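pasting for ref
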Amino acid sequence: MLVRGHGVASGKNPDPRFPAGTLAMQKPFFFELGLDLGDFYPGTLNLSVAPCLFMPGNPTHSFPGVKWSPSLPAENFSFYSCRIRPAGETSFVEALVYWPHPSTKPEFHQDPHVIEILAPELPGVAYGQEVELAHYPEDMSFAMPEA
């Protein structure tokens, strides 16, 4: 189910350090490293997979030590290929799980049951809507937390 995020990736959260959002600031660095995010909406879809947890595997792209902001330390990022479709739709769209590594992410930590998805703009999607995610099991998986 789609849930509300922090709003910093898209710039909807009025943080003066990221006036157009963190993704707008990060995109040129990722492009230099070989990942073009130009076809994706400049924000993330926050997908709750509760009660499961995201288990990273083999990323499609992995970038250690990206110093994208003068006010924050360098971060490690991984991206995982996937496809998504809103409930009721017949076609999937290519997407990426965007995973700033929690070990290097200084602020705006995500709920461990929420993954951030980069996708083309999907008109009509809304918070609370169900979204189907397709992925390769060797790239990532989802597991129930241990009791």
